[in-house]
Each structure stands twice: as structure tokens, then as C-alpha cells.
Amino acid sequence: MKRFWAWAAFLAGLAYMVLPLIGMSEFSLKMRRGVYSLDAYASVLNDPKFQETFAFSVTMAIFTILFGVLLVVPTAYWVRLRLPRLRPYVEFITLLPLVIPAIVVVFGYIRLYNTSSWLPMTGSTLGTNILLMFGYSMLSLPYMYRAVDTGLRTLDVATLTEAAQSLGAGWGTILARVILPNVLVAVLSGAFLTFAIVIGEFTMAALLNRPAFGPYMQLLGANRAYEPAALAVIAFAITWACMGLIQLVTRLSKHTRVQN
Amino acid sequence: MTFLRIDHLEKSFGANRVVKDFNLDVAQGEFISLLGPSGCGKTTVLRMVAGFETPTSGAIHIEGADIVGQRPNQRNIGMVFQAYALFPNMTVAQNVGFGLKIAGAGRAKTDARVEEMLSTIGLEGYGGRYPFQLSGGQQQRVALARALAVRPRVLLLDEPLSALDAKIRTSLRAEIRQIQQRLGITTIFVTHDQEEALSISDRVVVMNGGIAEQVGTPFDVYNHPATAFVASFVGTLSILEGTVKSKAEGSVQIAGQTLTRLRLPDDAAGDDKVSLSLRPESLRLDRRKGDLDLAGKIIAADFLGSVIRIQFEYGGSRVSLDVFNDPTRPPPAVGGSLTVHVAPETILVMRR
């Protein structure tokens, strides 16, 4: 009997998650009257706006990840190595993006960096893009920092650093050749989460008026019937692909296959 | 000829002085052990030589040059850690070749040296493995090869055997000594295990409370301890308390008995309270000419395999005695009485 209820609860939960997805997917295939077709997908994928915004968001995601890695890995490493007492504070700072809404942050950015400020970043396309990248980095900070810090926890950072130093390595070499390769799986999982966040982000991109994928999804959703459903399925597939890649990379990483 | 000189080295962490006026001259190719209980400052001395800690004052010279101002990666000092510290993302060969790669040695030169080092530690053919695929003993040998590959001026070993099981510990200990002698590399070894220190070293530095209490050969440190701490820390020791009866006769009153012909401290006088230290191996069941006799009641007889350690009560203290195992003679019964014999010159007398 117990088993029955366990299964019932599981199936109810599954239905709650899966039914809307099935409904949406089914709807996305119904653009042509009376038959199932991929017309909605074709329409979305052929839309130059889709390609343009998706390419923009992917580029932004790549830069955000690079900046995030350069910022977070050395910071988390240094905090673990030399400033362990600061860890609670650094963790608190990295968690702030979860409690401060993006809209608050972006209004702050616009106030601070508008064209009449001392650093008029919104005055040029490049400046605005850089500002957007900083915003994205901040949004992904909780995930990136946590992932890297967890990765570092599995290492004896202090002893590995000293071993490398005694063999003649400087800080750059230690970070690039010893620390980063050993937290690569953690960095990648942080990177894929960052990718998913950047692809779906709406508020910052919309308010900074950049042609990103999030605002495009919103625009399409407001004006079309079948295409938004197709777009949602595509976005969903991208997210799942990211998750799959995290798993794949974790498994392919040779030296972590068996942990001692 | 002094190769490594440590001069009036001091280290404080806040108000806590962990190393106090530490001095040591090490000759080239010498194997020195720093021996002491945990917290005695031995690892701190080692870390200052490596460059991971900065001395509060004092100097460290290698070949006449002060290295205190140099960063760890400029010192060319190899180090082996208790926790192995192999780089998990690199194969054995990459680990061993790491220092050479940093130094900019060419591919061919690095590969040749890695092969040479792997054969030195007896792990030929293991180059392609990752650290997690090796046992603890193998990992530590790789760590040793990695430290030696760059031909360091000095090799530092920070309790490298502590994480290994007893059998591996003994064999690797012998192997380390053999490699060290073959390469003639100046080595400082930190350990809290006295057997390890005595068996492997040219000289032992016994440390306590940040101070080097005695520096000497293992034979000297064991047989002629300079302080009460050294006497009690190195080897097993039974300590009896007595009173000097006559300086001239070298006699001490203890448990209603007078022991004579003892070597008393120079400054000892009549009625001084002294402690008598006895090594378990200096006590015997058979009597020889000139021996003193100590009679007591057996309180324990532990069978340790090749040796039986008997403990008996004498003068209110517990005295240990080691006898070789004899298959025809089982250990004596607890509670029985026992008379043991000791040559007076083997008893170490110190003022209390």
C-alpha cells in the first residue's frame, strides 16, 4: 500500500511537470490546420531576428563565462588559500544577486553609467554591451562561485600550491596548470548554468535596449500564436543540452573518474 | 664545511614564540632529522627553510648566501609533504616532469630525466598512470621523484611516512635513505617518530617547545641525552626517584636500597634529589659481575613477538625490561617476584 502511494505521488508530480510540456510541444506542432507539422519551428528558425538575437546572446554568454572564470577562480582560490576568515563575507556578496532583483540593479547601472555620468558606458554600443556583460556576470555569480568553491573544497589547495611553488612555479602557473585543471568540471558546470541564465535573461537586456534572445522571446510571445511555443521548446532543448554537457564532461574527465 | 646554516632563527605567531633561537649547521650530503612532539616547532623550521613561512628574525644560508628574502619558487629546494600533494590532473610522468617544464628544460631532456627518476624509485612503466591509480607508498615515491627531478640543492621531507601503514613505512624509510646517499643530497627530515629519526639520520635534532634541546648522532642522542626531555622522548625510559647519599661513592638511596658506583652529575651533592633513568634493554635477567640488583613485583608481561616487555614495580615506579622471546620459556606470571640486574654505568642520573 505504501508503495502505491509513493508511486501515486511520483506520477502526480511527474504529470504536473510533464503535461504542460507535452501540451506546449503538441501546440507548437499545430500551426498547419488539421495535421502536425514543424512549420512553427521553421518559421522561428528562419526568422533573421531569431538568428541575430540568438547569436548576440551566445556571444554575450561566452564573454560572461570568460569574465566569470577570470574573476571567480582566482578569487575563490585566494580566499581559500590566504583569507579563509573572509569566506562567509565573500559568500554573502556572491549571494546578493539572488535577493536583489535584476531590475533594481539595471536601474542602478543606468543611473550610474548614463551618458551624463562620469563613466558614460551607455553612450556607445560597446560600452552598453560591456555593462550588460557585467550585469550577466553578477547574475551568474552565485552559481559560478558556489560551483568553483565546491570544486576547490575537494582539493588540498594549500599543499598543492606549496608543492608547485617548491618546484619553481609562480602564481600564474599555479592557477593555470594546477588549480584550474583540477576545478575544470566545477568551472564547466558553472559555465553552463551561466549560459542558460544569459540565454533566458530578459530584464537587463530589455532595459539596456540590447538585441538579446530574452526580449525577442517576449516580443514573439506577445505577437504570435504558435511560434512562442516552438521557441519555448527550442529554449528548453538548449537548457537540457547544457545539462547533458555538464554530465558528459564530468564523466569524460579522466583524473576524476575514481576519487581516492 | 657548512652547506646549510640556520642562524638564530626565530618565529612568532602573534605572542606565541614557536621557534626560539634555533641554530644548525648542515654539511653537504648530510641527512638531518628534526625530531620532537607535535607543536615543538620542527615543521615551522622546515617551512622557513622552504620559504613558506618568513622568520621573525635570524638567517638561513645556503652555500653562504642568505635565502630568507627569496620566494619559495626561487630557492631550488625540493619538498615532500605528508599528504603527497601530487597534482591530481597530471599523470605520474607529468608530475615528475613538472619542475623541469617550469624550468624550461626541453622535451627530450625532461623525458629522459623523468625516466631516470622513475627507475630510481622503482616505478618504471608507471608514467602514464594518474595519482589515484597508485597506492599511498607509490604516490609518496612519485612525490619524492618529483622533488628530486629538478636537482634541488636541499631536500625537505615533512613527515613523509606518517600517512603510510607500518610495513610500507619501514621499507620506504630505507629506500629514502638509500636514494639520499646515492644522490648525496643534503636532506632535512621532520618526524615525531623517534625510531624513524634514529634509523635514517646522520644527525638528529631533538626539539621541544621551539628549542633545539640536543643535536647529535643517533647513538649520542640515545645513549647520552643532554636533557631530561631528550632522555624521556627518545626511546622508552623508566624513571626512578632517589636521593644522593654520597657523591664520592656515587651512591643513591632509593626504595630502602643503596645503589652505588653510579655516574652522578658533576654538580650533585649529598641529599640532592635525583632521577635515575633506565633503558629497558639495559636491564637483564642474568647477573654479570659488578651488576646492581633490583627486586620487585611483576605487574605486566607483554608479548611483542621477538621481544617480551616485562614491567615490574620498584621503588614506587614502573620499570620496563625487554627480554628476547624464548620458545621454551613462556612469559613470567604477573604478580610473581623478580630480580633484575643492571650495570651501574648504564643508569643515567639527572638532578630533579
TrEMBL record, chain A:
**Could you read off the lineage of the organism from its UniProt record?**
Bacteria, Pseudomonadati, Pseudomonadota, Alphaproteobacteria, Hyphomicrobiales
Q: Which residues form the ABC transmembrane type-1 domain?
A: 54-247
Which Pfam families does this chain map to?
BPD_transp_1 (PF00528)
Recorded topology in the membrane: Multi-pass membrane protein
Q: Which GO terms describe its biological process?
A: transmembrane transport
Q: Matching InterPro entries, A to Z?
A: MetI-like, MetI-like_sf
Q: Which SUPFAM superfamilies does the UniProt record give?
A: MetI-like (SSF161098)
- Name of the protein in question: Spermidine/putrescine ABC transporter permease
Q: Where in the cell is it found?
A: Cell inner membrane; Cell membrane
Q: Which domain of life is it from?
A: Bacteria
Stored Gene3D superfamilies: MetI-like (1.10.3720.10)
Keywords, ordered alphabetically? Cell inner membrane, Cell membrane, Membrane, Transmembrane, Transmembrane helix, Transport
Q: Name the GO cellular-component terms.
A: plasma membrane
What does the sequence similarity comment in the record state about its family? Answer: Belongs to the binding-protein-dependent transport system permease family.
Q: Which organism is it from?
A: Zhengella mangrovi
Instruction: Write out the transmembrane intervals.
Output: 54-77, 89-112, 118-136, 183-208, 228-249
TrEMBL record, chain B:
What keywords appear on the UniProt entry? ATP-binding, Nucleotide-binding, Transport
Its Gene Ontology molecular function terms? ATP binding; ATP hydrolysis activity; transmembrane transporter activity
Q: What are the GO cellular component annotations? A: ATP-binding cassette (ABC) transporter complex
Domain named ABC transporter: residues: 4-234
Q: Which GO terms describe its biological process?
A: quaternary ammonium group transport
* SMART domains hit by this protein: AAA
Q: Name one Pfam family in it.
A: TOBE_2
The record's InterPro entries line, in alphabetical order, gives: AAA+_ATPase, ABC_SmlMolc_Importer, ABC_transporter-like_ATP-bd, ABC_transporter-like_CS, Mo/tungstate-bd_C_term_dom, P-loop_NTPase, Transp-assoc_OB_typ2
- Show the PANTHER family listed in the entry: SPERMIDINE/PUTRESCINE IMPORT ATP-BINDING PROTEIN POTA, SPERMIDINE_PUTRESCINE IMPORT ATP-BINDING PROTEIN POTA
Q: Which family, according to UniProt? A: Belongs to the ABC transporter superfamily.
Name of the featured protein: Spermidine/putrescine ABC transporter ATP-binding protein
Species assigned in the record: Zhengella mangrovi
Starting at the broadest rank, the lineage of the source organism is: Bacteria, Pseudomonadati, Pseudomonadota, Alphaproteobacteria, Hyphomicrobiales
